[in-house]
Amino acid sequence: MIPTEMYADALASLFEPIRPLLDDPRVSEILINGPEQIFVERAGRLERTDLRFSSSAAVLAALRNVAQFAGTYVDASQPILEARLPDGSRVEAVLSPIVDEGPAVAIRRFSRSTMTLDRLIELGALGADAAQLLAALVRAKRNLVIAGGTGSGKTSLLNVLAAAAPPHERVLVLEDTRELSIAHGHVLYMQARKADERGAGAISIRDLFRASLRMRPDRIIVGEIRGPEALDLLQAMVSGHGGCLGTLHASTPRDALIRLETLCMMSDVDMPLAAIRMQIGSGIAAIVQVDRLSDGSRKITQIAELAGYDVDNRRYELRELFTRDELETSALAPTGLLPACLPQLRAHGQQLPAAMLEAAALRSRER
């Protein structure tokens, strides 16, 4: 096996044209559209650079080395590559015939500094009151889903919230590609694997999930819920595995629930939709919505409690606990509703933020 350091040196040479971007801690994404079009994202804003590779062959040579480091391959017969660089950056690449302009590559960079709730407050992603509520929900082992679009900050928030788990707990993390790095004393990371060139050796998130249930987890974290493993996670939630966390691509909390339904129905288990909805209503405590705004900033825009599923009206009982009246300008503020899971929070020694209690008192007086 070739040491990681040797791969890092080889890749540094092959990626020399974009080395300034790889060394810049402000860069969150590098997009290569063929050898002559290279874009970079800083602070949520995309801009074109003057950098370029000498040819498509030079880009392809770099990608083949990335694939070798990841234990896979990329060519015309398998023109999609999912891998990561030695520093943990995620690489997604597609080749001809899928694209005409030459290899297209997206490199997602991850912050080298440890993100915390306090740091998110400093950045304006949320306020102290909302941070206190989220930490309380995690410590009380409520099951949370973080919803948002691509590049909205879901993974960063998942890292932060998972770190709020009590230090005596054993945390198991399941991912397709390693992205999470949780500041917690007892974390086991498990990673899925694609089939080799002979079609053998694939390990899915579902496989990892089944194995994780026999490894004494205190809580299970799924980096991204995007397949039939959604049903496995949901059934774990309703069968006593509290404190589960995961991310999901969705633009609103209600859309997140609909997408979760769809993913559950992708499973090979023939379960009626009504039963899936009841389990979602019972298993998930809250949905945290994150968005990337027009100025490039990433913010939590809503914290919605899921208080169950109304069978008679066929509707999820979503209750907004924190929201922004105007996404671009307003702060994340309590709505005056108190969480239905308040008894469970108190049973775990958790208190609500004073601002939530004050907003609830004001709402009561106004009625």
Which regions have little confidence, pLDDT < 50, spanning 5+ residues? Answer: none
**What is the C-alpha radius of gyration, as a whole number of Å?**
22 Å
Largest sheet: 9 strands, mixed
How many domains? The number is: 2
Strand order of the largest sheet: 9-8-10-11-7-12-13-14-15
What is the rounded distance between the termini? Answer: 70 Å
CATH class of the largest domain: Alpha Beta
Count of alpha and pi helical runs: 12
Order of helices and strands: HHEEEHEEEHHEHEEHEHEHHEEEEHH
For this structure, the CATH topology of the largest domain is: Rossmann fold
Query: What is the CATH architecture term of the largest domain?
Result: 3-Layer(aba) Sandwich
For CATH, the homologous superfamily of the largest domain is named as P-loop containing nucleotide triphosphate hydrolases
Roughly what percent helix? Answer: 25-40%
> What is the overall pLDDT average?
90
Kindly name the structural category: alpha/beta
Number of distinct beta strands: 15
Quick overview of this protein structure:
The chain has helices spanning 4-14, 19-22, 56-70, 117-122, 128-139, 154-162, 205-212, 229-238, 253-265, 273-283, 342-347, 354-366, and strands at 27-33, 38-42, 45-48, 80-84, 90-94, 104-108, 144-148, 171-175, 187-191, 219-222, 245-249, 286-292, 298-310, 315-323, 333-334.
